[in-house]
Amino acid sequence: MDPRFLWLFAGVGGILLVASIIGAILSRTVKSEGGRETVRNLNERVRAWWVMVAIFGIAFVFGKVVTLVLFGLTSFYCLREFISLTPTRPADHGALAIAFYIFLPLQYYLIGIDWLALFSIAIPVYAFLLLPVAAAVRGETADFLMRTAKIQWALMLTVYCISHAPALLILNIPGYEGQNFLLLFFLVTVVQLSDVLQYVFGKLFGRHKVAPRVSPAKTWEGLIGGGLSAIAVGAGLWWITPFTPLEAAGMAAAIVIAGFCGGIVLSAVKRSLGAKDWGTMIEGHGGALDRMDSVSFAAPLFFHLCNYFFAA
Amino acid sequence: MIRLLLFAATRFLVGGHPRWQGSEPTSRQRIYFANHGSHLDTVLLWSALPPDLRETTHPVAAADYWGRNALARFVSTHVLNAVLLQRRPKKGEDPLRPLRDILDSGESLIIFPEGTRGDEPLPRGFKGGLHHLARDYPRAELIPVYLENLSRAWPKGTLIPVPISCSVRFGPPLPFAPDEAKPAFLDRARQAVVALA
C-alpha cells in the first residue's frame, strides 16, 4: 500500500478530531441565540465530513467499482432531491424514469468500462434529445420547454457534473499510473475545505455580501480568506499530485472559484424552486445536494484541466 | 423478511418520512383516512407507523386489485396486514363487514375514502363508508393523513415508480358530531386532509 494514503487519512482524521473537540467545547460554552445556530451548523458540517472521510476510506480500500457505486448513490440522492423540489407533472413520468433508470447507471457504467468518449456525450447529447421525446409523446404541451429544461438541468448537475469526480480515476496520466485516487482526494479536499473555510472566515470577518439575495452567507471576506487558505492547502498537497507546487496552487484556485460559482448557482436554483435547503423534505437533515453543490461545478473543470494539460 | 425488503425498497425510492402534526402515535383505536394517488400509498402509510402500532393497524385494500391472484393476496393480507374490501358487493351483503370485524376487535384501520386512486395531488370527494364507521364506532379517533408527492412518484397508469421524496403527514383528530349531515361530515373530513397539504 502507498504509505501516502495512510499519512493523508491520518492527517484528515487528526484535523477532524480537533474540529470535533472544538465543536463540542463551543456547544457547551456559547450561549447567545445566533452563536448557537452557528455552532450547530459547524458541528453538522464536521459530522458530514466524518461521513465523507469514512466513505472515502471505504472507496479507497475496495477500489474503483465501490467508488463508482458510492458516487452513483450520491448522484441518485442529489437527483431525487432536485426532482422532489421541482414540480413535475404526470406526463413527465416517462422522462424521469429514463433519467433515473437509464442515464444515471449508464453514466457510471461508462466510467467503469473506460469509455471516455461516450461518457462525455451520453447526457449532453443523447439524454438531451431523448428526454423531450419521452415527454412529447405523452401529448402534454403546457410548460413543455420549462419542464424539459428542469429535468435536463437536474440530470446535468447531479449526474453528469458529479460523475466527473470519479472519472478522474480513468485519466491516463504518464508517470502517475495507479495513483489517480489521489487526484480525487485532492479535488474533494480542496472543494470541501474551501467551503468550510469560506464559512468560517465569513463568520469571523464577513462584512460585504457577494450576492445577498441569492446566498446571504457568502461574503467577499469569506471568499478571499477561505479561498486563499484552501489554495495554500492545495499547493501544500502538490506531492500527492502530478503537479508542481505552482501548478497545484493554480488547480486549487480553479477548484475554489468553480466551487464558489456552483454554490451560488445552485443556491439560486434552489431559491427559484422556493426552498432554503435541498433537504427540506426531511426535517432536521441538510440535503445531499447542499454538500455537493460546489463539487458539481468544480469536478468537470478540474477533470478537463487535468485531461488537457496532463493526460496522455 | 419480505416486509423488510419491501420497506427498504420503498424508503430507497420515495423516502416516506412520517410527520406528526397535531397527533402523536398511540395505541388507542384509530381510523386513519388519507388521500389516494398511487399503489405505494398503502405500504408507505403503514410503514410510517411505529412498528408496534403496525401489528394492530390494518390498511383497507380493494379486493379486485389486491386479491386478484395468490401473490397479491399474500402480499396484502400477510405482509401488509391488510383487510380486503369488495368495491362492488353482492346484494344484501354489508361491504363494511370485514372492517367492522377489525374495529369490533379493538384494532385500527387505514382507509382511503376516495375509493380509487386520483390523478391530482389533492383528494376528490370522499365516499360514505367513513361516515358509517365514524358513526358506529365513536370511540375510534379519526386521524386525517396527507400523503405528499406520491401521485407524482407513481402516477396512475404508469408501470414503475420514480424516486421522488414523499412524506406522510398525520393531522389532529377530527371530531365527530352525531347530528351532522353525512355530506357535511364527508366534506369536513376531506378538508382536514387538504389542510395538511
UniProtKB/TrEMBL annotation, chain A:
Gene Ontology molecular-function annotations: nucleotidyltransferase activity
Family annotation (Pfam families): CTP_transf_1 (PF01148)
Keyword entries, A-Z: Membrane, Nucleotidyltransferase, Transferase, Transmembrane, Transmembrane helix
GO terms of biological process kind: peptidoglycan-based cell wall biogenesis
Keyword Membrane among UniProt keywords: yes
Keyword Kinase: no
Transmembrane segments: 7-28, 48-79, 116-139, 151-175, 181-201, 222-240, 246-269
An example Gene Ontology CC term for this record: plasma membrane
PANTHER family: PHOSPHATIDATE CYTIDYLYLTRANSFERASE
Protein name: Phosphatidate cytidylyltransferase
TrEMBL record, chain B:
Source species of the chain: Parasphingopyxis marina
Keyword rRNA processing (UniProt): no
GO term, biological process aspect, one: phosphatidic acid biosynthetic process
Pathway: Lipid metabolism
Protein name: 1-acyl-sn-glycerol-3-phosphate acyltransferase
Matches recorded under InterPro entries: Plipid/glycerol_acylTrfase
Keyword Transcription regulation: no
Phospholipid/glycerol acyltransferase domain ranges (all copies): 30-150
Alphabetically ordered keywords of this record: Acyltransferase, Transferase
Domain of life: Bacteria
SUPFAM superfamilies: Glycerol-3-phosphate (1)-acyltransferase
Alphabetized GO MF terms: 1-acylglycerol-3-phosphate O-acyltransferase activity
SMART domains assigned: PlsC
